[in-house]
Amino acid sequence: MILLRSLAYQVFLMLSVALFGGAIAIVGRWVPFRLLSRVARIWARANLIALKSLCRLDYRIEGLEHLPTSTCIVMSKHQSAWETIALRALLPVEHTWVLKRELLDIPILGSALRRFRVIAIDRSAGRAALKQLVTEGQHLLGTGHWVVIFPEGTRVPPGERASYNVGGALLAQRSGYPILPIAHNAGVFWGRRSLIKRAGTIQLVIGESINSTGKSAQQLSRETESWIEGVVARLPTRADLQRSPAQSD
Length: 249
Known about the structure:
The protein is α/β, with parallel strands linked by helices.
């Protein structure tokens, strides 16, 4: 049953990307950014509803009161594809992403992503990529866009850790904008490169903003990593620990 549910959602996801992504790619250049972002939010919320309906995969948020009213740099744990959908649905519409440049080569999706003023990084470019992140990030922050960064740079399975890249912290240090840390356990339910979506409730925790004033990039990176990994360590690491009888197959 879990495989059938997962396949059904996968079909929904692909069709929704084709429909929304195709529309955004075609008309995006003539549509205001804010309106495009609202359309993307509808897509993301539709996918969260589909996950709950088809896969019985829900989520719970802790710390909504910590969402700032002003521009910030979001640094989130990266375990799954789920958070790329959920953050689009949950964050203010005026936000954009730091992502790997290869995503822009994906048919339909890549064309749609280009409409959202993303910071597309060549991860092999070293210092040039870091400079690009800081330069473009400062410009976007200055125009009122939140910037979303996955500091690990790739999806990391639950129970494992990867080094945090300093790019997001350097952007915070250079720009003076605060960091909003986000932790979750989405990988427990929707694994890296996995078709299976397990029933249960993903826990997402939003932390208090980390002030960047007077701190080095290394200090900001350590502070962000310590908070995120500390919260992740206390979240359930098995899907069955959060499943109710109604969610059982």
